Amino acid sequence: MRQLTAEDDMGPVLALIRAAFAYMERRIDPPSSMAGLTVQDLARAAAAGEVWSTGDPLFACMVLTPRPDALYLGKLAVAAAMQGRGLGRRMVERAEVRARARGLPAVELQCRIELLELHRFYRGLGYVEVARTAHPGFDRPTSLTFRKGLA
Asked: Which residues lie below 8 Å from residue 133, measured CB to CB, with a gap of 6+?
């Protein structure tokens, strides 16, 4: 697993995120912010926070964004052919290690309300739902916020 820099080629990262998130297209409302994500956005994310990848060719990645009270874990993606091998769990564990290294007390992430299998995945790793939020224009929750405190 390696941390990418803003100078690294983010094309494969973007391609993996798009491929891994494609199954959500008809499941979530509103559509994923992934649709508007660019290689420039990922380079900025690497400069301001951390972008991690593993595999050659790339088969897992994530974006980590430091916030005052937690490290935000976003855009965790695992190639379909590599799912079920513990890569997602290892990426989440790396996020927890990085949060501790940054002196942050928790890892936080958001997950769409429709993606029940991801809720189970994160709960199984010790994450607890701490909030429900609605995207602009929605009168119902569209996302769950999960958080894990790090002792």
From this structure: 110, 141, 142, 143, 145
Q: Where are the domains of the chain?
A: 2-108
> In which residue are the tokens 């929605």 written?
138
CA separation for the pair 59, 91 (Å, rounded): 11
**For the domain 2-108, what is the CATH code?**
3.40.630.30
Kindly report whether the global pTM for this prediction surpasses the value 0.85: yes
Under a CB-based contact definition with an 8 Å cutoff, are residues 67 and 39 in contact?
A: no
Three-state secondary structure readout of 102-132: CCCCEEEEEEECCCHHHHHHHHHCCCEEEEE
- Token pair 């660019």 is found at 38
**Residues 67-83, mean pLDDT to the nearest whole number:** 96
